[in-house]
Design brief:
Layout lengths: L6 H8 L3 H9 L4 H6 L13 H12 L1 H15 L7 H8 L4 H9 L4 H13 L4 H21 L1
Helix pairs in contact: 2-4, 4-5, 6-7, 6-8, 7-9, 8-9
């Protein structure tokens, strides 16, 4: 007889953090559901990874707590928000530290990031992915200029 999977198994299979497991529990998502929704990036490219999906659903349902989670995440990234409005906007949008520096290298302002975020939502993407793509194009163009 098959046994029900536990949250520990789902955490390993879906590569969830402890916070994301807690979010899934608060959303009343069973471990079995988490495991079934784990996407195979090779065949199901349209599917969001389970950690991202869990965070988005949690933000929809518990907005105030999600803001607190983001604030604590921003504190961990470093630098005070008052020092650089662009970094604050990037952290507010959920950028990683490296994506913040990519945005800085691209000379994007906080208004640019907000516009990018609106465009990304229309294309069903995240702004961080667009910044990564822009940065990769910048690097490629730099290599082409260097080769010429």
């Amino acid at each position: 007889m098959k046994t029900e999977p536990t949250y520990e198994e789902a955490k390993k299979i879906c590569r969830l953090t402890e916070n994301e497991v807690q979010m899934a529990k608060r959303l009343h998502v069973s471990p079995d559901t988490l495991i079934r929704n784990a996407s195979s990036r090779r065949y199901e490219k349209w599917k969001d990874p389970v950690p991202l999906y869990t965070r988005r659903q949690y933000e929809k349902q518990f907005e105030k707590e999600a803001l607190f989670y983001r604030e604590s995440r921003m504190k961990r990234i470093g630098k005070k928000a008052d020092e650089d409005p662009m970094l604050y906007a990037a952290r507010r949008l959920g950028f990683t530290r490296s994506e913040c520096f990519m945005a800085k290298d691209l000379h994007l302002t906080d208004e640019d990031l907000n516009i990018l975020n609106k465009r990304a939502k229309k294309m069903n993407l995240c702004a961080a992915l667009l910044v990564r793509r822009m940065y990769e194009k910048l690097i490629e163009e730099g290599e082409r200029d260097y080769d010429a």
